[in-house]
């Protein structure tokens, strides 16, 4: 499953949850999505209006409860919990209980997949790296987690991590097109770079990315983000319906969905893309997305969770 798809499975069923400050347990319909764990306030409805946020599993660990019925008064012994990583997290531990061993195993496996999926994928790829370094697909690694990227400075004798977001933005603006020209340059039979080939590759490189939604309307984009969950940083990139050959970044922030125009511009004969009227330019949409996963730029927040196509 990890190798055949870039999306995460959606898990949903009834679970018992321990009510905070009480010894009682309440049965709720839970839904697991990439943006977090939710429960429905209206029966088995998965409509975003009826989903209540329960936990962000990226900041906690998943454990199985031993003797859940005896130790915690659970209705069954098929218990598990979400314990925050921070000091004193045991006090904020969230207890859940399934109706069967099969259901418990399904939930624990899915939660760990959502949390550690990137590491699982890296562990699979590592033995193959020495055999075929050139065949290693970096774009596939990028699609596993947008939060794994860091800004790097390669200008000096030693490589260093750029921790200051302002410095990262300044360097990115100064370097501009150099980011991908160095990696995408090709040489023809006469020893000259093939600029036209690079331009065609840069135009099409976003088509294989999971965050790109081809021929998706504004209304469809808003529906997809609603289905994913109105969490800061949920985003997708789509074709613009009003402006030919341009794109739109649809982003959730503050429980609202905002749309930002991505315009194509020419710079020295090269096709580039910009969100800020040309102040910051990118040779393709993948570079634009990667940059804004690290830096806000003109956006209200960084890009955190790309929106997948959810089928209800």
Automatic annotation (TrEMBL):
<protein>
    <recommendedName>
        <fullName>Growth factor receptor bound protein 14</fullName>
    </recommendedName>
</protein>
<dbReference type="InterPro" id="IPR011993">
    <property type="entry name" value="PH-like_dom_sf"/>
</dbReference>
<keyword id="KW-0597">Phosphoprotein</keyword>
<feature type="domain" description="PH">
    <location>
        <begin position="8"/>
        <end position="116"/>
    </location>
</feature>
<dbReference type="InterPro" id="IPR036860">
    <property type="entry name" value="SH2_dom_sf"/>
</dbReference>
<dbReference type="InterPro" id="IPR039665">
    <property type="entry name" value="PH_APBB1IP"/>
</dbReference>
<keyword id="KW-0727">SH2 domain</keyword>
<dbReference type="InterPro" id="IPR039664">
    <property type="entry name" value="GRB/APBB1IP"/>
</dbReference>
<dbReference type="InterPro" id="IPR001849">
    <property type="entry name" value="PH_domain"/>
</dbReference>
<dbReference type="Pfam" id="PF00169">
    <property type="entry name" value="PH"/>
</dbReference>
<dbReference type="InterPro" id="IPR000980">
    <property type="entry name" value="SH2"/>
</dbReference>
<dbReference type="GO" id="GO:0005737">
    <property type="term" value="C:cytoplasm"/>
</dbReference>
<dbReference type="GO" id="GO:0008286">
    <property type="term" value="P:insulin receptor signaling pathway"/>
</dbReference>
<dbReference type="Pfam" id="PF08947">
    <property type="entry name" value="BPS"/>
</dbReference>
<dbReference type="Pfam" id="PF00017">
    <property type="entry name" value="SH2"/>
</dbReference>
<feature type="domain" description="SH2">
    <location>
        <begin position="211"/>
        <end position="307"/>
    </location>
</feature>
<dbReference type="GO" id="GO:0005886">
    <property type="term" value="C:plasma membrane"/>
</dbReference>
<dbReference type="InterPro" id="IPR015042">
    <property type="entry name" value="BPS-dom"/>
</dbReference>
<dbReference type="GO" id="GO:0046627">
    <property type="term" value="P:negative regulation of insulin receptor signaling pathway"/>
</dbReference>
